[in-house]
Specification:
It is built from 11 helices and 19 strands. By secondary structure, the chain is α/β, with parallel strands linked by helices. The longest helix is centred in the last third of the chain and has 19 residues.
Length: about 500
């Protein structure tokens, strides 16, 4: 049965109202608005609830087997032709924000080859389109996808699939119709204040500037937050800093990645030492950090090294339980921000020796790491991060991640995913690439490393990472201790020499 196309009484939001909506934060999943602003905007795009939320015009709809069929006649009941825009399938009441990125995608096939038009537009006069693309649909199912920047700001947006103008009766089948924003499909937010960009801005005449800008500054998609932001600076509010960063990403429809790095006793007094003064200060800091996100889309890597170093008795000096308590507290506070916030608790790397395993003679200590992660609250997160600030290849890191995930599931019943730091793993972490017996490179600014793949969603294949991310910002020094090459800058300081070496792989 054909459903009449719905027209909203108010398609265009007044400018003042639109500005207010653009800055509105989703406080938590439990308080999420009925009209989605971030994430998946299309309702019932897999048609598991029949034709609910979808309307049609001069097209008979049915939903069977988790797909939508639309039967389109070539002539009207009066015998006239059916124009392309006369017959359509669509969904209205969508929130679109001007300047934000969106991705429309769907699977489609038809009983005869046909070219249809897919749009995202206003659902009322003046029917402004912000996306209009032709799709050549064949008799075998094909996936279509477009990423675009919205030119309209409205609560009256619509998806339309225009199906008319065909020479004969045609049956279309659609599935997996999706309209997203602020997900990995729209891209990761680039930190505009990253150290590489700051260096390029100060040295525009340097012969390395253009190379560093294109290869690193324009691709640095992770921002680290720690005691340099607020703990020792009362004038700085960590909640406001996080809120501003996440808000800027949300306004663009891109996904931000943040690192929370303020655990007391950070880095066991090493090159990156510091952190909050005590557990109470840390909990206050992470409270503000989490509230700054305000339920908006974000990926958070939680406290690099903190879990693995909790197994070091000399470092902990009896403070293991206090650290576990802080990490659990942080995981819980981030979990309370809702499903748009994805937290990954750091789980070291594939060559971090924690002790023997029943099924692993290399001493990686999967059982011990699983125990530490469990104690640190990994069950309240989406999963764990591996290879942060390290150099192991994707293959080595995925092997570690998949075995650790299996151990968490088998021993503790915890389902988890993982992400891999790819910022400097283009040449892997072995002295001779691909040869484990050659030994592993040092942790501090080793030579011969190379940029890895830029931040992106994983392939979805079994045994692989959910995301590959530039977590360590390339070109930022690991430190200047005796274990580092002579002349290395202090930890976290950008070096154009280190940056260029990573670009060139030397």
């Amino acid at each position: 049965m054909t459903t009449t196309r719905r027209r909203l009484r108010a398609a265009i939001v007044p400018a003042a109202v639109a500005a207010a909506l653009l800055g509105t934060a989703v406080p938590s999943s439990s308080a999420a608005p009925s009209q989605a602003v971030y994430g998946e905007l299309a309702l019932n795009g897999t048609f598991t609830s029949g034709t609910a939320s979808w309307w049609s015009q001069k097209a008979a709809l049915a939903a069977t087997g988790g797909a939508l069929t639309a039967t389109v006649e070539s002539r009207t009941s009066a015998g006239g032709p059916v124009n392309l825009w006369d017959a359509m399938v669509g969904q209205a009441d969508l929130r679109l924000r001007k300047g934000a990125r969106y991705t429309l995608s769907f699977d489609a096939k038809a009983t005869a080859a046909a070219t249809i038009k897919a749009t995202v537009q206003l659902n009322d006069s003046p029917w402004t389109t912000t996306l209009a693309e032709d799709a050549a649909v064949g008799t075998a199912s094909k996936h279509f996808s477009w990423t675009f920047t919205s030119q309209v700001d409205t609560v009256g947006g619509a998806i339309t699939l225009q199906l008319g103008g065909l020479p004969a009766r045609t049956v279309f089948t659609f599935d997996n119709v999706s309209l997203t924003t602020s997900t990995a499909r729209e891209g990761f937010y680039v930190d505009p204040g990253n150290n590489a960009a700051a260096w390029v801005g100060k040295h525009p005449a340097d012969g390395r500037a253009a190379k560093i800008r294109s290869a690193i500054a324009d691709r640095s998609t992770v921002k680290w937050f720690g005691d340099w932001d607020a703990d020792g600076n009362p004038a700085t509010d960590i909640g406001a800093e996080v809120g501003g960063y996440v808000g800027a990403a949300a306004a663009q429809g891109r996904l931000p990645v943040l690192v929370a790095y303020d655990i007391p006793g950070r880095d066991c007094g090493g090159a990156s030492s510091g952190g909050a003064g005590d557990p109470a200060k840390y909990k206050a800091w992470i409270d503000k950090f989490a509230r700054g996100i305000a339920g908006r889309p974000a990926v958070v890597v939680l406290e690099p090294d903190a879990v693995a170093q909790s197994s070091d008795a000399g470092c902990m000096k009896g403070g293991e339980q206090a650290r576990f308590d802080m990490l659990r507290y942080a995981a819980q506070r981030l979990q309370q921000q809702g499903g748009l916030v994805q937290t990954y608790l750091d789980a070291g790397n594939a060559t971090w020796t924690l002790g023997p395993d029943l099924d692993d003679t290399r001493g990686i200590g999967l059982e011990r790491m699983a125990e530490l992660l469990d104690s640190s609250g990994v069950s309240m997160t989406r999963g764990f991060a591996v290879n942060v600030s390290n150099f192991d290849s994707d293959a080595v890191s995925d092997d570690y991640g998949s075995r650790l995930a299996a151990r968490l599931k088998a021993d503790r019943g915890i389902a988890s995913r993982w992400v891999v730091d790819t910022s400097r793993n283009g040449n892997g972490g072995y002295l001779t690439p691909g040869v484990p017996g050659s030994g592993h490179v040092g942790f501090c600014n080793p030579a011969g490393r190379k940029l890895g793949v830029t931040s992106r969603a994983g392939s979805g294949a079994a045994g692989t990472a959910e995301y590959r991310l530039w977590i360590k910002n390339p070109g930022d020094s690991d430190g200047n201790s005796a274990q580092c090459p002579a002349g290395s800058p202090a930890a976290g300081v950008f070096s154009p020499d280190l940056a260029e070496a990573l670009i060139d792989g030397r």
